[in-house]
Specification:
Elements (H helix, E strand, L loop, with lengths): L8 E6 L4 E6 L5 E7 L11 H9 L9 E7 L13 E2 L10 E2 L7 E5 L3 E3 L4 E3 L2 H11 L5 E5 L4 E7 L2 E8 L1 H11 L13 H13 L4 H14 L4 H19 L1 H4 L4 E5 L1 H14 L3 E5 H17 L4
Parallel strand pairs: 1-4, 4-7, 5-8, 10-13, 13-14
Antiparallel strand pairs: 1-2, 2-3, 6-7, 8-9, 10-11, 11-12
Helix pairs in contact: 2-9, 3-6, 4-6, 5-6, 6-8
Amino acid sequence: MAATVTAEWIAVDWGTSNLRAWAMDRDGTPLAMRESDKGMGRLKPDQFEDALLALVGNWLDEDRITNVLACGMVGARQGWMEADYRAVPCSPAGSDALLVPGTDPRIRVSILPGLMQEQPADVMRGEETQIAGYLADNPGFAGNIVLPGTHSKWARIAGGEVTGFSTYMSGEVFGLLSKQSVLRHSVAGDGWDASAFRSSLRESLAEPAAAMGGLFRLRAESLLHGLAPDAARARLSGIVLGLELAAAREHWETGPVVVIGASGLGKRYAEAIEVAGGKAEQIEGEGMTLAGLASAYNQLHGGSK
């Protein structure tokens, strides 16, 4: 790759599956973005630096040190180096970060910490940066933010701080049921039936105790009545998400919810909250990640290198 830009600093979102990096200007404007499949889950601790340099090496100025600020699973126990959690209540991204020692002399890498909650025990790593990005543009926000994903997070926000949060493994449960359980024979494909989703969501939300029976009914109906895979898949999603909304009722019943995430999944969560009787605003997640990294960088470096 030919060099196209020289980064003032580099913002990095390093998840379990993917690595994304932005070359940033002094004022926090992204000049370029690159991504790779070198996520935390594919790397050993001594492989992270090489993976990063392979992606951003030609953004570097050979005559000075370039700061790199990273968030996400790169700071997990299985990542490059473990960045300790900060206890709530606290601001989502403050002026603290873990400096990674012994890196290439052209870069200075820091990793943002995640957040922890003592009781009930909970942790997040990466989502706090998206929350910080939203609060950077909405400093007076008070309410609830949901961040859909493999493990969705529902966070309570007041006074510029995360005061508490809850995690639901709905995305992982849906993935396991649709790909590794007997239901995989009934929900094959990626089609969708919006009406079936809404109906199943309402039933699961109204009567969570019946959800376990409703799951196997999807298989039985496909065998006996020819339930279409699109409808079965949508109903499975409705059951799982209905259970999450039932458990997170205190969040969406007490006021508007901001949904931060990828457009497809974020839209589904916003729709589910509206169907349940709440109000939701949907925000694209990637922009909030970058805004959160820029806000944290400004706190760490005063807006300059």
